[in-house]
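Bumping with the actual sequence this time:
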Amino acid sequence: YNRRPHQNIELDSSTTHKSQSKSITKQLNTTFAIMVFKAHRSSIHADADAADATISTIVDHTNKKNDMSGNIDSQAADADATISTIVNHTDKKNDVGDNIDSIKAYFSTMDGKPDSFERFEEQFHKLIHPEVVVKSYQHDDMKYDDLIHLVKTHFIPKGCVSEVLEVIDNGDGTLTSVVNNHLPGEDGDVTYQRAYFNDEGMVVKVITTSQFGDLVDRVEALPGRKEYTRIVDA
């Protein structure tokens, strides 16, 4: 048979260069793609960081606004409490003033004038509570009807007169009346009467000094006005 002679195949140099060029281009493309991806990823992270910073700023701003709002609410609450205290204090002062006026009006009716009892009875019902108790160290407790009986039957008909010297605010809601009671034939008899009030401004309890109990006994023992006049004329 015929053997073909051995042939040496030589690669064209241009083919080699083309292959190398394609490889380099592929590597460059890959590298560029990686760089673009990394740059894009870095941009995403930067945007995320910026977004986080923005959110943090908004949250801080909101918290500060909430804190300011809380401070404003707190200050407003303090202001309301202060105003309420002032109003309550003013109301209490007004109540005390009203009670002092009522006490003075009450005692002023016992002035010895002909219409004294009518005026007394009107003020009595306004000021004295039906469950009132008057306590004295030298006399039994007196109730509502006892007081009316004393004034109607003895004090006014027998010519006694009450003069208010002073009404003292004790600072605890009570008032102490300093009263000079003029009995016929006497210069005067000062008693101290401490009155306790309910929320409606009515007297529910009175505590007196020992002079009051002695005064009640002496008033009840006085002769009537006519009988007393005859004795004086004689």
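The tokens above came from a reply further down the thread. The chain has a mean pLDDT of 77.
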